[in-house]
Amino acid sequence: MRPTQTLPARILPASLARDLPASFVVFLVALPLCMGIALASGVPPERGLITGIVGGIVVGLLAGSPLQVSGPAAGLAVIVFEFVRQHGLGMLGPVLVLAGAVQVASGALRVGGWFRAISPAVVHGMLAGIGLLIVLGQVHVLTDALPLASGLDNLVAIPAAFFDFVTGEGNRVGAVTVGLATIAAMIAWERLRPARMRMVPGALIGVLAGTAVAGLGGLAVKRIEVPDAILSTLSMPGAAEWGRLLEPTMIVMALTIAAVASAESLLSAAAVDRMHDGPRTQYNRELGAQGVGNLICGLIGGLPMTGVIVRSSANVQAGAATRASTVLHGTWILAFLLALPWVLKLVPTAALAGILVVTGWRLIGPHHAVHLHARYGWLTAAIWLATMVMVVATDLLTGVLVGLGLSLLQVIPTLRKGRLRIEHAAATEVAGVPELRLSGSATFLQLPHLTEALERTPEGGEVRLGTKDLAHIDHTCLEMIGDWAGRRAASGTRVSVVGGFGRPHEKLVAAVAAPFKD
Q1: Of 10, 232, 343, 354, whose CB count within 10 A is highest?
Q2: What is the rounded CA–CA span in Å between residue 396 and residue 3?
Q3: Which residues, at least 6 apart from 279, have a Cβ–Cβ distance to it below 8 Å?
Q4: Which of 27, 369, 331 has the alpha carbon at shortest distance from 201?
Q5: Which residues contact 392 (CB under 8 A, 6 or more apart)?
C-alpha cells in the first residue's frame, strides 16, 4: 500500500493575510495622488500612474525599506513643471536616467547616510516652499485655468482669477464648485469617518465626491484626458534627446533631482522606521533601489519618484507585514490601467487640484517652524523660513543651497570647541552597562559617524550617553538621537543621559525624553 502524501500545511505565507488588504488600501490612496501629481508636474496623468507601477513593483522588490512605498512625489512636481515648460517633455527621460544612475552610484559608494545629515530646518523649509508653490499653482487649476510659470506669477494672478470667477468667465463657477466639494469631502471624511472604515482614504472620497458633483450637476468642466491604450504611449527617448544630455543645464537638473529625491526618500524611510517594529531601513540599498526606479522611469516615460510618506504611512497603518504589500499595490495600478482606463476620463481636473491643494498645505506644515523655534531657538526657525522663501522666490536648488549655507554658518562658531569624539566604554557606576561618551562639538557634519556608533550599541537593558565633555550639540544630531532613542525604547532598551551638565546635557536629556512626550 502506497503511503499517503500530505499537502503542505501552508501554501501561502501567513503574512499575506495582512499584506493583501494593506496593498489595496495603498492602491486607493496612490491612484488619485499619482494622477494629481502628474498634472501638477505639467505632464499627462498616465505618466504618474506608470511611475506608481514602477515604484510599487520594481522598487518594492529591491527596496532597503520594506514597508516604504515609492511613487511620484509632490516634492518634485514643481521642479518637473518648470523643466518641462522650458525644455519639453522629451528631455525629462534622459535627465531622469542620469539622476537614477547618480543614485545607484551613491548607494554603491555607501553615501546614503550623508543625506540624513541635512538639517531638518532645511528639509522642512524646502518642503514648505514646495507646498506653497503647489497651492499657488493649483488654485488656478481649481478654476479650470492653467498655472503660470512661477510661484510669484501665480500669486500675482490670483486676484485676476478671482475676478474671472466672480464674473462667471467660462465655467469657472462649476470648476470651483467641484474643487471645493473635493476639499470639503476629503477633510470631512478624514475627521469624521467611522472606525470600521478608517482605512478608506480621504483622497479617494474627495475625488469621488468631486466627480459626483460634476456628473450629477451636468457641469461642463475639464476632465482628465487619457489615451484608450495607456501602455502603448510608453516610449524611449530619441537620439536627439540623448544628444543634449551633456549640456550643463541637463547635468545640473539631473543632480538636483537625484539630491532632492534621495533626501526625501531617506528621510521618509527614517519616518517609516518609527512607525513599526520590523526590519530597519538599509539606507544604501534603499538609495540604490530608488535609483533603479528612476532610471527605468526615465527610459519608459515616467516621472521622478521618491519614497512617499503619505502612502507609506497608509501601508503601515493598514497592517502591512512585508514588502509584498508595496509590490501588490503596484500590480493593482497596472491591472486598473489595463482593465478600466475609461474610468479616469470621468474625473474632473478640478477634483485632482483640490486634492493637491490639501496636500500642498500639509507640506507647508507651519507646525514644523513652531517645533524648531520651541526646541532649538529662533536661528534654526529662521533657516526654515529663509529656505522656504528662497524656494518660492527663486527656485528649489537656490533655496536649498541657501538653507545649507546658513546651516554651515550656524555651525562654524562651534568648530573651535573641537570635533566630535566618541568613546565606547562600560559605565563606571553599573557593571556591564554600555556607555557612549561624547566630547567636543556634535554637528550635522559628524552625523553619519554618530549614527553608526549609536546603531552599534546593544538592544535591551540600558544604554548610557555620557556628556561630561560634550561642548555643543546641534538640532540635526538632537533630532536623530531622539528618533534613535524612541526606536530603542520600543525594543525594550532604556536610554540614559549621564555625567554632564549645562546646555548640551540639558538639550540631550530633552531629545531623549521627547519621543515619550510627543
Answers
A1: 354
A2: 70
A3: 66
A4: 27
A5: 129, 132, 133, 151, 152, 399
Rounded to two decimals, the pTM is 0.78
Provide the residue-wise pLDDT of the chain in tens; the chain has 518 residues: 455 444 444 555 778 888 888 898 889 888 888 988 998 898 988 899 999 999 999 999 999 999 999 999 887 888 899 899 999 999 999 999 999 999 999 999 988 877 777 888 888 888 888 889 888 888 888 888 878 767 777 888 888 877 777 666 667 888 999 999 999 999 999 899 888 888 788 888 999 999 999 999 988 898 888 777 777 777 888 899 999 999 999 999 999 999 989 988 987 887 788 777 778 789 899 999 999 999 999 999 999 999 988 888 888 888 888 999 999 999 999 998 888 888 888 889 999 889 889 888 888 888 888 888 888 889 889 999 999 999 888 877 788 889 989 998 988 888 788 888 998 876 556 667 888 999 999 998 888 889 889 988 888 888 999 998 899 999 889 988 988 888 888 778 889 998 878 888 998 998 888 755 54
Q: Which three cell numbers stand for residue 110?
A: 555607501
